[in-house]
């Protein structure tokens, strides 16, 4: 205890803050693990958002090509092969759009699995002895003289 303090107020303050420090130190490992899980979730969601944006850009590109193909189709219909080329290109674009949508769905499913896994880890930490060994004080520090 600090030599400049004496009496009941000093002992009360020392006891309260000493206990608080020990409680925080006892939870450091568990809080570090929780920190790592939160970082995993944040990084996963960020990468998912970036990948989803790229997939949506790909879908938009395919829709533009499909639209152009459909607009040009009547003009090249006079040639026999032009109709089939136009329809084939349109069908290819539709198939690619469906494929890209499937990729987005798979990506979301994988991200949901990571999130559910991380939530499970975080919930299991409630039973971790590091969190239950030494609880934080439940009341604020009250100066005995105040």
UniProtKB/TrEMBL annotation:
Assigned keywords, A-Z: Membrane, Transmembrane, Transmembrane helix
Transmembrane segments: 63-89
Name this protein carries in UniProt: Uncharacterized protein
């Amino acid at each position: 205890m600090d030599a400049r303090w004496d009496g009941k107020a000093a002992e009360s303050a020392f006891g309260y803050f000493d206990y608080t420090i020990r409680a925080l130190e006892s939870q450091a490992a568990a809080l570090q693990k929780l920190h790592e899980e939160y970082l995993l979730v944040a990084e996963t969601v960020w990468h998912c958002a970036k990948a989803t944006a790229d997939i949506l850009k790909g879908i938009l590109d395919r829709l533009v090509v499909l639209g152009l193909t459909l607009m040009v189709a009547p003009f090249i219909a006079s040639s026999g092969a032009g109709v089939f080329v136009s329809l084939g290109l349109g069908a290819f674009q539709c198939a690619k759009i469906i494929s890209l949508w499937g990729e987005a769905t798979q990506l979301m499913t994988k991200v949901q699995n990571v999130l559910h896994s991380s939530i499970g880890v975080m919930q299991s930490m409630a039973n971790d002895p590091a969190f239950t060994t030494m609880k934080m004080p439940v009341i604020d520090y009250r100066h005995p003289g105040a």
